[in-house]
């Protein structure tokens, strides 16, 4: 399956792509041997060419490709990979090939795509999921507006189709819609947002809710560790719903073709997923649907397959209704109204300190729903790792600990946000570690060094970022400009890499001013 996300492209694709490259190189060498009439062992390669070392003769890859493609593919195990010491590009800074076109406005994103005969569409969604169109009070007047082609009712939305997008937008914004609650069962596949929903009330619910706590990680005996601790420290942190806010708003262009096929252009991170869903929605064979994937104008997890989070079902429905290709762009207002959000959570920390002020027990319970859990109507049998990543698998040596989830279903449609659970949980964990340092009268840098004393890689990273900053100093201290400053430190280990950062800040009239930030990253070996 073609997919990009979760910082997996290089981590998962590198070994396979490296071996595929080696297989292709071997086949080009074999084709070169046939072309030059020499043994393969006498050949090598240089950029774009096969080279006969003894004679200096060369053959371009392009002249060999038609022969190489018909050769048997060697067994993957039979091909020797290049020694890392011979890498030509890996590990070196190289210019990106797309920077110039991006910087000069020449790149075509999904919102730039045009096809012959297309119409434009804009939508107005119901104020919340679970509502539908009751009536439109001025439909006929809007039909008479300049450039308007037609007015349409869609599930949970209304649309105006026009010759130009601005005509469509003006038309749809002029529609006076009476929104009503959908009939029971009509919205069974969506999360119906309660009419009285409040993020503040949901936050209070997350803070106090009780229920089954499912352990994701345990070590030692946290109950005993907390009971025997010299000091108990507790804190609860909250994460709010967060939109993606990517630069390019969602869009889709759908075209039914005379031969019964369907073409759809849309920003996406998993074209095979989208094609399967389109086949399900339209009743068409997947082979008759072509997905075009233009360059994404930012995505950060936004362009996965989220129910009601993408305009392509609307574009397909409008193309079928009008018999014309339809290009639909959501305004930023509609984008924020129907985005799949990062989950809300209340993460409850409880730790025990020994007589020296160092943590010996840690109990963490996150009342939340993971992004992956939020994609389905039913919860899987296993814990969703995205709910707790950034809390689990920490290298800090705390002998008795437990990390658990208290599952609470969110009323909002959930989605993957950049770095997923790490985006909130790493910050919360590191913040609590600072609170432990404060309560235990420990220096936050020295405490981390102690807890990582058996992890050479991370202690090296921590010391290196301190050296980069000119040497760790907590503060407050007086800087050269006379301002009173202090430093904070944090670490994270998401997706196979480790990062450490130090920030130097001051307070000016109650506002935090950031003066310097030092960051070091160790990538996965």
Automatic annotation (TrEMBL):
It comes from the Bacteria. Keywords: Oxidoreductase. It holds the Pfam family MoCoBD_1. The keyword Cytoplasm does not apply. GO terms for molecular function: isoquinoline 1-oxidoreductase activity. The keyword Oxidoreductase applies. Residues 104-183 form the Aldehyde oxidase/xanthine dehydrogenase a/b hammerhead domain. Its EC number is 1.3.99.16. PANTHER family: ALDEHYDE DEHYDROGENASE, BLL3820 PROTEIN. This is Isoquinoline 1-oxidoreductase, beta subunit.
């Amino acid at each position: 399956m073609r997919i990009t996300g979760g910082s997996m492209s290089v981590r998962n694709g590198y070994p396979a792509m490296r071996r595929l490259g080696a297989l292709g190189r071997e086949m080009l060498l074999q084709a070169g041997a046939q072309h030059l009439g020499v043994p393969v062992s006498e050949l090598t390669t240089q950029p774009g060419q096969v080279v006969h070392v003894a004679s200096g003769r060369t053959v371009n890859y392009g002249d060999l490709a038609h022969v190489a493609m018909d050769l048997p593919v060697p067994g993957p195990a039979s091909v020797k990979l290049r020694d890392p010491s011979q890498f030509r590009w890996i590990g070196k800074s190289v210019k990106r090939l797309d920077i110039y076109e991006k910087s000069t406005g020449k790149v075509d994103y999904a919102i730039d795509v045009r096809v012959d005969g297309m119409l434009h569409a804009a939508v107005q969604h119901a104020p919340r999921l679970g509502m539908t169109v009751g009536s439109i009070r001025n439909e006929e007047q809007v039909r008479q507006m300049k450039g308007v082609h037609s007015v349409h009712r869609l599930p949970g939305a209304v649309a105006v189709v026009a010759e130009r997008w601005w005509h469509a937008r003006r038309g749809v914004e002029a529609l006076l819609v009476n929104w009503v609650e959908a009939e029971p069962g009509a919205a069974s596949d969506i999360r119906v947002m309660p009419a009285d929903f409040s993020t503040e009330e949901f936050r209070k619910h997350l803070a106090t809710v009780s229920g089954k706590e499912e352990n994701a990680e345990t070590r030692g005996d946290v109950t005993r560790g907390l009971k025997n601790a010299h000091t108990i420290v507790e804190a609860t942190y909250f994460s709010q719903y967060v939109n993606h806010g990517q630069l390019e708003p969602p869009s889709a262009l759908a075209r039914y073709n005379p031969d019964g096929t369907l073409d759809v252009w849309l920003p996406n991170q998993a074209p095979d997923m989208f094609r399967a869903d389109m086949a399900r929605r339209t009743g068409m064979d997947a082979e008759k649907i072509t997905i075009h994937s233009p360059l994404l104008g930012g995505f950060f997890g936004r362009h996965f397959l989220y129910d009601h989070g993408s305009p392509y079902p609307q574009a397909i429905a409008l193309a079928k209704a009008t018999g014309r290709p339809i290009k639909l762009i959501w305004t930023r207002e509609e984008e924020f109204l129907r985005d799949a959000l990062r989950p809300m959570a209340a993460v409850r920390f409880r730790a025990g300190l020994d007589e020296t002020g160092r943590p010996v027990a840690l109990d963490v319970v996150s009342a939340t729903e993971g992004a992956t859990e939020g994609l389905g109507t039913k919860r899987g049998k296993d814990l969703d790792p995205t709910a707790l990543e950034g809390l689990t698998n920490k290298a800090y040596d705390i002998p008795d600990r437990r990390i658990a989830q208290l599952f609470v279903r969110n009323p909002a449609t959930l989605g993957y946000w950049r770095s997923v659970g790490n985006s909130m949980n790493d910050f919360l964990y590191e913040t609590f570690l600072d609170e432990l340092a404060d309560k235990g009268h420990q220096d936050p840098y020295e405490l981390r060094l102690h807890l990582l004393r058996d992890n050479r890689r991370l202690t090296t990273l921590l010391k290196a970022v301190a050296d980069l900053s000119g040497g760790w100093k907590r503060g407050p201290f007086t800087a050269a400009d006379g301002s009173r400053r202090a430093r904070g430190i944090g670490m994270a280990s998401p997706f196979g890499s480790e990062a450490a950062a130090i920030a130097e800040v001051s307070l000016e009239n109650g506002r935090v001013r950031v003066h310097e930030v030092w960051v070091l990253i160790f990538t996965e070996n």
